[in-house]
Amino acid sequence: MPPVEVDTAVVAFDLALRRALDRGVHTFVREDGTEREFNWRWSQPWPGLSRTFLRSVHEMSEPGGPIASEKAAQSYQAWVKPFFVWLSDQDPERRCGDGLNPLGPEVFRRWKAFLDGRVAREELKSKTAYNYKGAVTRVLENVLKRRPEDLSPEWREEHLYQDDFDQDYDAREPYSVAEALRITREAARILVQLQRPEAAGERNGRLEQLSIYTLVGLKLGIETECIDRLRARDLAPTDDGKRLRIRYVKRRLPGRPGRRAKSVSGEDWGEASEEVGSFRTVGGALAYARRQARARGVLEDGSLWIRPLTAADFRWFTDQLHGRGLRADDGGLLKVDRTRFRATYKSARMLKSGGQLSLVADDHSKSVAARHYLENEHLQPFYEQAIVDAGMEALAFALREPKIVDLPADAPDGDVAAAAESAGATPEEVRRALNGETDAWLASCKDFFNTPFDPAGNSCSKAFWGCLDCANSLVTRRNLPRLLRFLSHLVDQRKRLPTAEWEAKFGRSYRQITETTLPRFPPDAVAEARAIAEGIDGTLHLPPELQSA
Predict the structure, then answer these.
(1) Tens digits of residue pLDDT in 316-368
(2) What confidence tens digit (pLDDT) does each residue in 256-273 have?
(3) What is the CATH number of domain 177-347?
(4) What is the pTM of this model?
(5) Where in the chain is the domain with CATH 1.10.443?
(6) DSSP string, 352-420
(7) Coarse DSSP helix, strand, coil percentages of the chain, rounded to the nearest 5 percent
(8) Suppose 279 and one of 126, 156, 191, 438 were both cysteines; which one would form an S-S bond, judging by CB atoms 3.0 to 4.6 Å apart?
């Protein structure tokens, strides 16, 4: 009998997992093979349920799994614990999860209802409850997928649909443009002053690190979690030294639409390229940070930061800048809060781009970008002006229409001059229109190579019925037969097409002809044109796309 091959790695993992489950810990394995343990002993009063949850969390920590970092492992530890705390009141005999009483969906439903009640009583933020529910949901999803026998047979996928949350957290209020400018100027000034010989002892210290971090946060606009994880090897100058290429880790799932990132070794990476100038440029500040890291003996894989910077550090930094004269727009304390950096950057881009939301939402869905970064008082004047501009643009479009010239081809010069003044044209343009020299199809065009829709010198790109919405067009009696032939086609299509489709294709053109153009000609001229149009039926060819529905 041939020997049975044994995967020693699998065996080792199973043994390590068994020991971890017995001890009530989650062992997270770092990239370098070292481990960190997270205490889950609070779950052990329910031995069966504890092993079910811990096994699932260990499986989710495998390469490519949702628990891809120590921070994520710590979050799961914190977010799952409230479920067991609640369970201690609901199941004092500790029976849930044992062989006779596997966890059922009803318990899960009651726990979620308990959280919803706390949110309703304003005892808990909706986003916090969402995180609690989400962590337990993902753990149970993994159990249901891999080992459904550990749960009661009533479980279905629909029991694990995740709830949404209300935006009841404090908005990420950005700094005003002036405040952000003052902060970055002061941070850059600190870095300049630290280059003086008498300040040598303060380099590579807390003040320097916070100044660099603040400049990068406000000017590069990436998430603070990405700044926290910057390493020396993530910065690379171009060959000419003019720009600095920046690569940063993003805690996002690969392949998500709108993300400018690529997966490397199971992580998502974002990239940027910044000009290397003074300390007030991102490239300059990070090039200096790279130099300082090397001076500390940091290897390429080492962090740019001496240690993780905390909220307490930024409170200290706020005091330092306040002592140096930094003030808010209202003259009060200007707090340096890193949670406001990205919102400030996004708001500034919104203003600079002239309202192009797609540029601001380049790494978010538009709804997330608007909800998280663009709802703030600093952008209110911009939004109000956008509404005014849109109204004016709509009014201008509504007033845009072809000009009517109701004259015979041999009209005297005096009448032509009067018609030209009324139509906003020159007498020469009106005369060419009356003679048919500038006929397009439904109208004459004052200048086919200088239209409102295209760069000067380019031919008009609009379809022929665009003449009905163009201030460049002149409609004369000679255009009326074709105009009426086109109207006949619109009426015919109305019988063939669904109402909504006809309205989308032809509704505006129909109203332009019947309500704006034809009523401005004498009834006799319209009757004459209709008789001519009926006489040439079948010889006046329409473009193929308008021949039939």
Answers:
(1) 999 999 999 999 999 999 999 988 898 888 888 777 766 555 444 455 555 55
(2) 333 344 333 334 556 777
(3) 1.10.443
(4) 0.46
(5) 177-347
(6) HTTS-HHHHTTTS-HHHHHHHHS-SGGGHHHHHHHHHHHHHHHHHHHH--PEEE---TT--HHHHHHHH
(7) 55, 10, 35
(8) 191
